[in-house]
Every structure is written in structure tokens, then in C-alpha cells.
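In this section we walk through a basic example: taking a raw amino acid sequence and producing a predicted 3D structure, encoded as C-alpha cells. The instruction is simple. Fold the sequence below.
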Amino acid sequence: MLKIDIKATGENIIKIAKSKNITHRIIADELGLNRTTPYQWERGRCLPEAETMLNISKMLDCPIEELLVYTEEDADEGAEDTQADNIE
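The resulting C-alpha cell sequence is shown next.
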């Protein structure tokens, strides 16, 4: 089963933004977020909410599918690991 890799997704968002000369600060300001929020994504502490992810996609002119990074989930770890707790 696939799951979203929180840290890799955050790193990917920032990598794509940097390739377009968009800084953490610009992301936060344009989306009306706390300036530390993009750093939290990059460090894998949380994921953007769905609406924010849509706005990031528009800002970066990049499909959401290209922002998300997935990993395989082991059957044993799936029951304990909930992604919903890490969405901001």
C-alpha cells in the first residue's frame, strides 16, 4: 500500500519552489501562512492541508501529483502510523 512520505513531499515542494526562485518567505506570504510553516514541511513535521496544497500547485504551476512523494507501507506499520496527525 502506498502512503505519502511527509518529509520527502515537503522537501520536494521546497525544491520545486527554489527551482522557480520562490523562497520559503514568498510561499508563506503569498499563501497567508506563518513564515515557519514551509520550514516545517521541509523538515517533515507536517503536510500542507488540501486547500493549501492546491494553492501551492497553482503558485508553482505544477500538478499536485508532482508535489507528492509516495513510499510503500509495510503491512505491520500501517495500523500504527496515521498521517492525519501531521497535516497543517
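Looking at the output, two observations stand out. The CA atoms of residues 38 and 48 lie 9 Å apart. Residues 2-86 form a domain with the 434 Repressor (Amino-terminal Domain) fold (CATH 1.10.260.40). In the next section we compare this with other chains.
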